[in-house]
Amino acid sequence: MSGIRRTWPSSAFGDTTPLLARSSVRASSASVEMTSSPSRSTFLGIDVGTGSARAGVFDEHGKLLSAASSPIQIWKDGDCVEQSSTDIWHAICAAVKAACSLANIAGEEVIGLGFAATCSLVAVDADGSPVTVSWSGDARRNIIVWMDHRAVKQAEQINARNSPVLQYCGGALSPEMEPPKLLWVKENLQESWSMAFRWMDLSDWLAYRATGDDTRSLCTTVCKWTYLGHAHMQQISENGSRDMEARGWDDDFWEEIGLGDLVEGNHAKIGRSVAFPGHPLGSGLTPAAAKELGLLAGTPVGTSLIDAHAGGVGVMESVPISDSEVNEADKDAICRRMVLVCGTSTCHMAVSQSKVFIPGVWGPFWSAMVPEYWLTEGGQSATGALLDHIVENHVASAHLANRAASQRISLYELLNKMLISMASELNAPFVSALTKDLHVLPDFHGNRSPIADPKSKGMICGLTLDTSEKQLALLYLATVQGIAYGTRHIVEHCNAHGHKIDTLLACGGLAKNPVYIQEHADIVGCSIILPRENESVLLGAAILGAVGSKKYSCLRDAMKALNAAGEVIHSSKDPQVKKYHDAKYRIFRQLYEQQISHRSVMEQALQ
Prior knowledge:
The protein is α+β, with helices and mostly antiparallel strands.
């Protein structure tokens, strides 16, 4: 388990910065127009995750100067998961002011900013006020969160029509995408459907709230709304980017699925114009938004990204200097990398110069992350969330958490130390071998890729009556391995369909866990590059601001300038480790096959 020595959050996927009570953050002075050159130039990245809003200030070399976070409210009721756009905006304002204060940065020293957020669905009326998407009728709850699975039936209905646009989504829409959610609202909340004037991805709404510009990102629309970004391939290049008329909507698709009313008004409710990520929006921050954020009116705002894709932008060019020099003339070098953005869930992203269709994997999406490249996006719906679920629901968890607190380390750090001790006590040939009798299929929230089965369930094989702390450590390790086998499945599936991935780059909260990263390196058989800056999603959002400020002519140039590699984790050279994981991987694949067989048996029994 050697290779990296660093700490990570007490939550396997949480923020690394302390939560700040909003009431403790003082408002900064009123905004003024941006007129003169600042004494120093910084870029601001803002990221809204599942549980908090975060802000990070970066210098012109991509180094993090400060970061702060503020919690956001979330309502969960079965498959329904909801948030409030008003609450999120207030949290952003608190985090931005705190981050600037921590870095001793004045408003005029922020020369560009960008937003990243989960791919959650926001509903607002003609005045921009929230429209409820909740059974409760609570007007605050106007966001269907990305992980919400209320629209499984609607996704099945849409997929049954086999529309041509689905070939650009891996052959099927996920209930986590926006069309199924929109259809659910229309079928179940008629009053809300009638009231909604704009339906927006959260990151687009944040940019709209900040600038008043309703232009949508090619990232959000292409990845989550079935927008065909390649409709613009011959129209314009990124360097000449402007607001582009949204010509990539497939009106027949919306009509077929029963949402033809969204086509009305030149797609006014879902987006009349689109832009490349980083394209400057409107006239920058409005005076009202600038005052709320403690920044200057007119500060450039770059077109947004989904949070995972911002992580990709923040890390994909983070290669060691020697490799960077060799690959400078190799346009395909970036196409051999896959970025793992490891948080509550994990996104697996790779780009290619030509489109690659892969069943069960989202995409190909043109210009959805790196402009003028095709994006392939795999994913696992629960990774950090699954580890927390497994650990926190174990009977030994509370006592172990107390032990960790007494040692002033995280619960996961204590578990990792226990595994090393257990391997020594049991004379195991290597730590991974401790789980030879314990196997986990991590589909506790369905399988996003590459099977694309939202009905898939988690499985644990090898349980006993043991409820000790050591048994929890084994279960934790087996779950980490199950997640890593899922990543191996995605990588192999992508390579079998045309990709040539040979290097992984990892960022996010889980990337700070050395066991998690080493197991992935050993199981996938690839080296894993960690970025210099831990906060890659915030950096990716800040890069949008750098491009929006015209500091860089295009996103790729900004990535090359501001990305930087940190440590490189290599896979084990021990052939026994490879043999062991190959065997466990076969069992991993068999677990799902057994589940499908069991599902069929029970369906027949109930006919």
